[in-house]
Amino acid sequence: MTFQTLDDLEDGQRVLVRLDLNSPVEDGDVQDNRRFDRHAETIRELVDRDFEVAVMAHQGRPGRDDFVSLEQHADILADHVDSDVEFVADTFGPDAIHEIAGLEAGDVLVLENTRMCDEELPEEDPEVKAQTEFVQTLKGEFDAYVNDAYSAAHRSHASLVGFPLVMDAYAGRVMETEYEANTAIAEKEFEGNVTMVVGGTKATDVIDVMTHLDEKVDDFLLGGIAGELFLRAAGYPVGYDIDDADLYDHQWEKNSEKIESMLDAHRDQITLAVDLAYEDDDGSRAEQSVDDIDEKTVSYLDVGSETVMEYSPVIRDSEAVFVKGALGMFEDERFSVGTAGVLEAIADTDCFSVVGGGDTSRAIEMYGMSEDEFGHVSIAGGAYIRALTGAELVGVEVLKR
């Protein structure tokens, strides 16, 4: 491990803890999600070890509908921690300082949304952030800083990168486990086959991941919009926009040369879908072999059943499987066959596995699987992509200092 963790932190201190509780907001109501459950593990440990805990987190961005107070977050976190969690509508002003001073062993206090502070958001060097009034005011109120927000670690914001330069800094349990799992594909040695399931909507992400990991991964199994673009590069009449959609053509123009080059150089490592699913005239799922497509006239919303049958044995013969992105529009049960099918194959396999990539991991719960059936289910989106492409995460790098 390249940074200090909670194992290195003496019990009973006053700590400033950065979580990532950013959540969907529907009609003004903050929605509970897996991030609360994960971060609650860190908070429960700190409470059990008699720490005095103040929590920082962000929600939304200024100007957006989901830019709201963290008052509801405090209540949701309390349910997961199974302990009282207080809230103060201030981040580093007099009210916040007063409440922090009153903390006792086992207390948890949530400070107001960090993005309501002018000095939080601009992407600036850690050295600049460390000198902000925000950081300089709070640093003297605590014995240590704990960053548990791996999923936000690619952001150079004050609450994430400023404090480690002016305080003793440690990784929380989420930061620790996410870092270990998400860097495993680059840092671990596997004796057997390594497989990566890659899909989603962003071709650039897929290409960057595949390019960086081409020597570490034996088999890439493709789906989603990115997979359809690779089929286009292989000569199939798919991967085009129809009905005024804006999903494929602009990504093709931007990435076609890279996709074709990747396919030429690594064709033996890349497995493409053999059939695709769409909604027929009566609203039910229909499937079509890619060899039988003469022209794209429907929107393809999932890989087909034959594709899942081809992908599953590859997964079951792997020592390690990594998932980045969904293979179809799994939120609609009709088009969940691809995503749920590969996840079920992974769950049935005794392999090292990491599932991540935005909302993909939600399919595990939606389709009756348990996170315990997988090695690690990441709650990170952008940070997960950066880890897979070998990019440094500034929030991790400052902890390493």
Care to describe what's here?
- This protein is of the alpha/beta class and 401 residues long.
- The chain folds into 2 domains: 6-179 and 396-400, 3-Layer(aba) Sandwich (Rossmann fold); 183-369, 3-Layer(aba) Sandwich (Rossmann fold).
- The chain has helices at 34-48, 71-81, 94-101, 126-130, 133-139, 158-162, 173-182, 184-187, 203-213, 224-233, 249-265, 305-316, 337-347, 362-366, 382-388, 394-400, and strands at 14-18, 25-26, 29-30, 52-56, 86-87, 108-110, 144-147, 169-171, 193-198, 219-222, 270-271, 275-279, 285-289, 300-303, 318-324, 352-356, 376-377.
- The strands form 4 sheets. Strands 5-6-4-1-7-8 form a 6-stranded parallel sheet.
Core attributes:
alpha/beta, single chain, 16 helices, 2 domains, 16% strand, Rossmann fold, six-stranded parallel beta sheet, 401 residues
What's a concise summary of this model?
The protein is an alpha/beta fold.
Supply the CATH superfamily name of the largest domain: Phosphoglycerate kinase, N-terminal domain
Note the quaternary state here.
single chain
Give the strand line-up of the largest sheet.
Answer: 5-6-4-1-7-8
Mean pLDDT: 94
The 3D shape can be described as elongated
Please work out how many helical segments DSSP would assign: 16
Top-tier CATH class of the largest domain: Alpha Beta
- Which residues sit in consecutive blocks of at least 5 with pLDDT less than 50? none
Structurally, the number of domains stands at 2
Total E-strand runs: 17
Strand content: 15-25%
* Helix fraction by DSSP (H/I, runs of at least 4): 25-40%
- Tell me which CATH architecture of the largest domain applies here: 3-Layer(aba) Sandwich
